[in-house]
Amino acid sequence: MRITSSIEYATRLMTTLSRAHGQAPLPAERLAETDNVPGDYVSQILVKLRRAGLVTSHRGSSGGYALSRPPAEITLGQVVRAVDGDVFEDVCGKYDGGAKDCRHQSGCTISPAWQKLGALVTGYFESVTLAAILEQDPARCAAPPAWLEKFSER
Amino acid sequence: MRITSSIEYATRLMTTLSRAHGQAPLPAERLAETDNVPGDYVSQILVKLRRAGLVTSHRGSSGGYALSRPPAEITLGQVVRAVDGDVFEDVCGKYDGGAKDCRHQSGCTISPAWQKLGALVTGYFESVTLAAILEQDPARCAAPPAWLEKFSER
DNA sequence: ACAATTCCTGACCTTTTTAGTCAAGAATGA
DNA sequence: TCATTCTTGACTAAAAAGGTCAGGAATTGT
To answer: How many Å from the CA of A83 to C1' of C16?
Structure first.
């Protein structure tokens, strides 16, 4: 389980754009330098962000990209969905090993575990805004979530 | 972000082996049928599970695979690590866009977000045992984790 | 001892995804 | 009008995922 380059790049770009919010738009090339994103790749990512309505673009000299709304109103989840489609892909219906029906075998015993994981990841992504990323204190929220224990109860 | 086929298959196999715990070992072919895992692929996965010490194998007729310890002492995390190496891969040092140093740009602003996600996912995997998967009530633990809100505080 | 059963090892292959490049064109502002 | 900047979509290379195959070694039942 991993963060793809697109997501990593996109979040870098979005945090940089957050810092520049309210100021002049930043050209793609400038963003590529600042965030160390491969030159031509950055455009592809920015296009996806624009199509998702997260950034606006302006052509011509002194053009570039800017956030379409304040950093506090953009979540990591929106960024991830913009570039990768889904935050957490559904398992059901895949890996059926040739079976016609969904073979989440044995009455779908494990399906709830994936669903909970999906909800956990999705919930996290939705709860984190760009503003929070910029402002947060890294020391906060370090404690392990106590509610997780419930799952391992006998 | 998704569950790979190896992980899905491995967890199916492990739940089936959990049900058979204490009984005669199950041959790979039998497991393949039961869990709808492609015939020759199942052996590869079982080998990894064995090398990780999660299952034992016995050759010869009436041989097969069995859990090496009770279902309550095996976590999803152990299964995932057995087949895929890591539960959550580190982002730092990757996607540096040609830069020599780790370019988690701008003083590693986003790195804490990935680390928290990693801790969340890892914590979940470690908290879930095979016994819990078999015994749990799907209705439980459905509530969204309240502590997540802390991250989005302004 | 022998044959059937079952695991073991590692090479091999195909498909999909990831990651990135490139080029021609259209809009914009100075 | 000209330099700047975004737009579009095709293209490609490398890696990972997903799966297959074959020859060999151990074990058990007879």
So the answer is: 18
